[in-house]
């Protein structure tokens, strides 16, 4: 009797629930579609247009809208290959330095016994580079690294050197030097996040089971921090490949990177070349990422927890 | 009873540990023989977990005069080189490794060839009935299964002492009871020294050879489970061991092991004296278990009262009696004569009540 009543009353209720969940489902579908559409319009479409543009050519400062491969075949003429290699070298060097310096720093920030407030201060310090425009930050280095700059003045006046050190500015060294502080936070922050998520008891368990600190690092901490490393790699390598402020301001025309080529093509109104070079940079980034993922998967199959 | 003459597997003497101004452990000493199941019982903040961490080496004590594991002094020895492993409260299984990789971890660290390590790990998994899930991901396991993996991982390296930090805390009631039996079985099979941390007196009484009850960083009482259950030495111990009724009074007479105490209001009752050095006239407390109380006729050892409430709970009935010494809780098993009657006096056997110095709470 009682159960019967329950059955009767629950039938329409189930219907209502079903109806409601149907509505929420369709709403979330709509939202998803809208987000994907917006993303497509804002991000994907420009990339496609860029790509399409690279198949046009320029004549008398006018874009000729006839499909051709001329831009692509001409892309590596006039020493572009060398520029590409230099770009890769600089970007990878900077990324590796960031990783080597940034990982221990992130580990220290996330897992050392520093107080909560000092941790907050360090995290706040890491966001400072985002406050100021990159050009303003970079141009300061000229006053510090230059022939008559701060460092040379100090070194000369203290008698450490007799003539000013010249390789500090307008050199590849200067470009690296300018890029490293700018790209430090993008490497450190994702790694810091990933390490913060590692439960302290895992580190203790490894220690308890007999592992040395080095073994714990390579077998537990690093594999679990890999998602952060990959993210840091993307956030650092991308901007490093496309960097143009530092090479422009601190390279002084001696350090030609792909970004410089893009800029000069842009100045010359050769939009198809700009498009082709940009596509090329994106392709480089994707290839490097694919290589990174393959290497990681090979060297620690079970360590890669990107799921 | 274990052979206590053999050198203890674990020996801790006079350990003091302070977290800043807070003293977590204050001159604690304990030891455990080979194959002994020692339980450290206490509420949160009693220092029991700190004790475990000091033994494992994850915490360096402020001072300790002797700390030996498996006969070797481990003062100043890092956790990694101590012959003891821990089963963590949250299991602390490595999420990026499979079940068998987790278990083989300690062996791989010790440079055991991979083939042998995996074989050993499989054997350890078989011991906890998980060999079929060796290649599973940790995320695919249930709580009880994770518990067993943690256990297998900790025993595979054959430590002298296994430390267990409330390992059953996260499991549901039924599973907990099953695991209790399994743990005891495993301990006997391995003949390994277990040091088990818990806040549950039921777990402590079920599994242990010996129980150490801790409170505020000190040992309140230690002994065999029955000893703690029947002879609590203080109000705290009695309360922790589940004595529902603890009444304060004054010792008026002693006759061998039996004492007579005046609860005030003309009520004088008898019980077993815990300590022989209680002087007549000193303030004492008497502890009574609800299920050991029953209605008695006038004149018997007991106290007059009126029935205040009666709650039927299935297997038993809980009755509250109002007496001159305060409310007394009484439990009557289903089917016992008390169930449908009213009573005007509750009593108990002298040996069922324990009397100890009143002390501070």
TrEMBL record, chain A:
Q: What is the membrane topology here?
A: Multi-pass membrane protein
Q: Please name the Pfam families in this protein's record.
A: BPD_transp_1 (PF00528)
Gene Ontology BP annotations:
transmembrane transport
Q: What species is given as this protein's source? A: Roseovarius pacificus
Q: Which GO terms describe its cellular component?
A: plasma membrane
What keywords are annotated for this sequence in UniProt?
Answer: Cell membrane, Membrane, Transmembrane, Transmembrane helix, Transport
Q: What is its main location?
A: membrane
Q: Does the keyword Transmembrane helix apply?
A: yes
Subcellular location(s) per record:
Cell membrane
- Give the ABC transmembrane type-1 domain ranges: 84-292
Annotated membrane-spanning segments are 30-56, 90-109, 121-140, 173-195, 216-245, 273-296
- Identify its protein family: Belongs to the binding-protein-dependent transport system permease family. CysTW subfamily.
What PROSITE patterns does this protein's entry cite?
Answer: ABC_TM1
Q: What is this protein called?
A: Spermidine/putrescine transport system permease protein
From TrEMBL, chain B:
Q: Supply the InterPro entries for this chain.
A: AAA+_ATPase, ABC_SmlMolc_Importer, ABC_transporter-like_ATP-bd, ABC_transporter-like_CS, Mo/tungstate-bd_C_term_dom, P-loop_NTPase, Transp-assoc_OB_typ2
Q: Where is the ABC transporter domain?
A: 10-241
UniProt keyword Protein biosynthesis present? no
User: Would you tell me the protein name for this molecule?
Assistant: Spermidine/putrescine transport system ATP-binding protein
One Pfam family here: ABC_tran
Q: Which GO terms describe its biological process?
A: putrescine transport
Q: Name one GO cellular component term.
A: ATP-binding cassette (ABC) transporter complex
Q: Does the keyword ATP-binding apply?
A: yes
Q: What would you give as a GO molecular function for this chain, any one?
A: ATP hydrolysis activity
